[in-house]
Request: fold
Amino acid sequence: MAEVKLHGFWPSPFSHRVIWALKIKGVDYEYVEEDLSNKSELLLKYNPVYKKIPVLVHGGKPIAESLIILEYIEETWPHNPLLPSDPYDKAMARFWIQFGVDKGPIFLKLLHSTGGEDQENAAKDFLEVLKIIEEKALGDKKFFGGDTINLVDIAYGNLAYWFKNLEEVLSIKLLEPSTLPRLSQWAQNFLEVPVIKETIPDHDKLLAYIRRVRKKIVAEQLNK
Reply:
């Protein structure tokens, strides 16, 4: 079997998407931790366009961008499928993955908010996105994939742990049983999946990292 390597960064939810998919598929791989303040020559060689992680290297051939990597993994290792076999259901899964991409700027608006009315408005906007995801994408299912997680769950996985840490940093509560009961339950179910539970970063370590990121972002915003 061709050698598989993953270049990632420990707090990155995009890296974790790839880790989860590889582990669910049972693919052996070597993990290469990158220092994003001093990117390796290999990372710059493998992803010369964006110069970002994650990058999956399979048989010496690099693939960049987490969602593209997930599709590659699904096609290369079709066992333990992460997309439905039915063409319509598969299209709907891809629709909701793309919905998350399209709404990314609303999440970034919250991450970059400077407090007060700015943060309040950003939180309201993101809550509306979460309500759509709960109502239209998740519905009454345990997971977006039904009884087991699929690529949609993996794509939204950062909500279950990364976003919950961000809520703590911002002192806000959006993904709560009282506000989003089904999506909140999904987050709990997701974190109990063994592959997820074993690989998410330590809570305190990730919380400290997000606090540092926020402090830097707010300082830059206020200095504009």
